[in-house]
Amino acid sequence: MSKTTRSFVTGAAILAVAGLIVKIIGAFFRIPLANAVGSVGMCYYEVAYPYYAGLLVVSTAGFPTAISKMVSEYVSLGDYMGAKRVFRVALLILAGIGLFTGALMFAGSSALANLSTFAEADLSFKALAPALFFVSIMCAYRGYLQGMQMMTGTAVSQVAEQVFKLIIGLFLAIRLLPKGPEYAAMGALIGVTISELAGLIVIMIYYFSKRDIFEGQIERQTACRDIDRGTMANQLVAIALPITIGASISPLSGIVDSALIGRILRGLGFAEEAAQTAFSLLRTNVTTLVNMPSVLTMALAMSLVPAISYAMAQRDYKSVRTNVQLGLKLALIIGLPCAVGLFLLSEQVLSLLYPSLSPVNLDIASELLKTASVGVLFLSLVQSMTGAIQGIGKPSIPVFNLFVGFVLKVITMSVLMRMPHINIQGAAVSTVVLYAYAGLADVVYALRVTKLHVRFVDVVLKPAVCTGAMGVAVYFCGALLKDHGRLGTILPICAGVAVYALLCILLRVFTETELLQIPGGKKLRRIMYRK
Predict the structure, then answer these.
(1) Which region holds residue 79: left if phi is over 0, alpha if psi is between -120 and 50, else beta?
(2) pLDDT digits (tens, 9 = 90+) for 45-70
(3) What is the spatial distance between Cα 531 and Cα 489, in angstroms, rounded to a whole number?
(4) Region 464-471 average pLDDT
(5) How far does CA 5 lie from the centroid of its chain?
């Protein structure tokens, strides 16, 4: 396996481990938060987030990818000073973007809250506004470090964010709850803002701790490209713009949910609180679980971009194809079992994590999760293949595919939700449609443009067989233990993990070469191949 593939796998592993820690801490935040403030409080919390994510997407999606791509290209040519200049230019641009978007959200908080039909959420918008500036600055550092294949800085800052959000956000939400659910949501989001500041401070400390390494690389550099700052800025924007547009589809989808779901449900005769509850069940209880596996595939995407960009700059097309195939394979290994597990254990998982849900709300959330779980697989494909295609240098392709998927989502939701017997389920189906189209279209394009002939048995069939056997084990174990409370959830999960892991070993899902590049892979190699 090539150096770029090793870097990709190692970087993905670092980010994946950090992502798992982040998701676990995040669950300790969102789950007790939802149980404490109730569906109405979480409604005010969730209403603000899509708009926040929409404004933040310029900083968090387009520019970090553009920075890491350009930095990795400069590094591949031995021009470390050029890589440093890319970072400095990006830092200025992102600081301006952060100030503008933060001021826009704060000034427009009332208008945004009214647009979502939940006027009391204006406090939530105000609480989140300063975070836009902190995250923008932080993403400049993350993009540079990722381009240098230093993923630890991003990982540590992500964990720091979640720790501060857990401690401060949950504390403020509970303290402010007596004033009303809208104040509890505001307190939780103040915790988010403080956590982003903490993450920024941590990654800056990490960056300055590596300053001697960066300066040494500049002194030993073997090339120097004479490109002025204006040209660099134009190049960054040219790369970031299509990525930003594509990344905006997900928060735009959330905005559409917040703008349409309440209106359509009220049109069907739902009471105000019933509409708020249905929205909260989908966005808080269900979407949170569906998005958990995505942290692993997002880590793949973040590592794929600089790894493939480096290989493309070196014209190492074999490494490009190897990285694309490995990215597709890992997306299936992650996405398939997670989708099946959430589908089969939807009610048990929800009742374990959200004991405050009433039986009626639990039934609604369980059916929503069964539908939404199908999208886990397609979301995994979207994220991994988007990273691959961006690394190849075709960022507009995932944008177009996501846009078509988004149009299909709006049409599907508008039609299905107006059917009284479907109602809120239409929103869950529409999101699956979005990611199904985009994911499959991205895979087809990535395979075609790289002229990659996928090893079907190794990449697709083996993960599918492992997942099928896991599903059988989970189904029967879950059926036998359904009335045993927490054990009825924990034991089927453990059984599924054990069966899946055992079959991955017996079927040798990873090749010997792949195992040598995966952290801890040497031990697995001795088990799988007895070497």
Answers:
(1) beta
(2) 777 777 787 777 766 667 877 888 78
(3) 37
(4) 94
(5) 22
Max mean pLDDT range (29-38, 370-379, 504-513): 370-379
The two three-digit tokens of residue 57, written as one number: 């997407």
- Whether residue 105 is predicted with pLDDT greater than 80 in this model: the reply is yes
> Which residues contact residue 121 at a Cβ distance below 8 angstroms, ignoring those fewer than 6 apart?
43, 44, 47, 48, 112, 113, 182, 185
Q: Which amino acid is at 266?
A: R
> Which SS3 state, helix, strand or coil, does residue 482 take?
coil
Residue 120 DSSP symbol:
G
pLDDT at 490 over 60: yes
**3-state SS string for 392-418:** HCCCHHHHHHHHHHHHHHHHHHHHHCC
Report the C-alpha gap between 204 and 85 in whole angstroms. 17
Please state, in angstroms and rounded to a whole number, the distance separating the CA atoms of residues 475 and 186. 41
Under 8 Å CB-to-CB from 234, ≥6 apart: which residues? none
CA distance 336 to 379: 11
Confidence of residue 527 (pLDDT cuts 50, 70, 90): confident
Amino acid code (one letter) for 300 = L
The answer to whether 328 and 459 are in contact (CB under 8 A) is yes
Q: Where are the alpha helices (DSSP H) in 314-358?
A: 317-344, 346-353
For the chain, state the CA radius of gyration: 23
Distance (Å, whole) CA 264 – CA 389: 37
Q: Please answer whether residues 29 and 166 qualify as being in contact, where contact means their C-beta atoms are separated by less than 8 angstroms.
A: yes
What are the tokens at 93? 């641009």
Residues 6 or more apart in contact with residue 54 via CB below 8 angstroms: 248, 251, 252, 254, 255
Q: Give, in order, the Cα–Cα distances in Å from 519 to each of 163, 329, 405, 524.
A: 25, 17, 36, 10
Q: Hey, is 227 helix, strand or coil?
A: coil
CB neighbour list of residue 492: distance below 8 Å, 6 or more residues apart = 344, 345, 348, 473, 474, 477, 478, 481
Q: Classify residue 302 by burial, with Cβ atoms within 10 Å: 0-12, 13-18, 19+.
A: buried
Statement: the pTM of the whole predicted model exceeds 0.85: no
What mean pLDDT comes out for the span 389-411? 87
Judge whether 310 and 75 are in contact, CB under 8 Å.
yes
Nearest to 283 by CA among 301, 260, 306: 260
**Which long-range contacts (C-beta less than 8 Å, at least 24 apart) are formed by 212-215?**
214/80, 214/84, 214/148
Name the amino acid, one letter, at 13: A
Count of CA atoms in the C-beta half-sphere (13 A) of 224 = 8
Task: With beta carbons less than 8 A apart as the criterion, state whether 454 and 460 touch.
Answer: yes
Stretch (H or E) spanning 234: helix 229-247
Measured CA to CA, the distance from residue 47 to residue 31 in angstroms comes to 17
Distance CA 195, CA 202 (A): 11
Question: Residue range 362-383: average pLDDT?
Answer: 92
Report the candidate in 209, 207, 295, 202 with the shortest Cα–Cα distance to residue 15.
295
CA distance 463 to 504: 8
